[in-house]
Amino acid sequence: MLDAFYSFKQNLILGAADSNMVPLIWVLALLLNNRHALKKAKEELATHVGKDRPVEESDIKNLVYLQAIIKETLRLYPPSPILALRAAMEECTLSNGYHVTPGTRLLLNAWQIQHDERVWTDPDEFKPERFLTTHKDLDLRGQNFELLPFGAGRRACSGVSLALQVIHLSMASVLHCFDIDKTGDQPVDMTESASLANVKATPLKVLLQPCLSPEIYQL
Ligand code: HEM
């Protein structure tokens, strides 16, 4: 069975199944289009985990480049781009002239905030390094209003810790266990779906080639 596993590249087609799956698909798609970042992530795993054991939860704190990749992915492709369930507490007038009275129900466009060129240099570019330099102190838990993939305040995502744990560990495991590749020469299509959940519009096709010794894959 393992021989067969090793002798073929696995051709996987990924579509979003749940909220944790959405960012994983975007991360893989971004890495396939940005090979330098993929190489750096694999080098980081080789340095901090090595090839003789699987990734463990305790490794994640050392994988700072991978953490930056996840942040940059959630910035570019927030799975919940619109934050709802808000009402204005005070009267205010926005810079575009809209007058908002107290109690007005509000929808927040987190996607737009996370692509705002007044905050982010090259806002549409995939640059994980920004989270190790210019934006290194920004977290994902609603403390910084320029980065809101899990919302903020009382109605912020109550699953944020679980979600981050699952995303980091599963992404680290995939990149550690497999060399990944595109199925063709064209860049991966990055079209976003026009809906309340920001799902990749087309399924992601990815080739997986095991790159560790067979024992690591046995449960
Ligand atoms: C990548 C994964 C996830 C993302 C991006 C995400 C994002 C969000 C966002 C943006 C909100 C609305 C926050 C706001 O309006 O300020 C939310 C709410 C919520 N999320 Fe998540 N979420 C994720 C995973 C999870 C998981 C794994 C759980 C549970 C195990 C969870 C449970 C909830 C709950 C219960 C709320 C409603 C909180 C409330 O209204 O008081 N989420 N999530």
Automatic annotation (TrEMBL):
InterPro entries: Cyt_P450, Cyt_P450_E_grp-I, Cyt_P450_sf, Plant_Cytochrome_P450_Monoox. The keyword Heme applies. It comes from the Eukaryota. Coiled coil: none annotated. Heme binds at residue 157. The keyword RNA-binding does not apply. The chain crosses the membrane at residues 12-32. Its cofactor is heme. Keywords: Heme, Iron, Membrane, Metal-binding, Monooxygenase, Oxidoreductase, Transmembrane, Transmembrane helix. One of its GO terms (molecular function) is iron ion binding. Pfam families: p450 (PF00067). Belongs to the cytochrome P450 family. This is Cytochrome P450 82C2. It comes from Hibiscus syriacus.
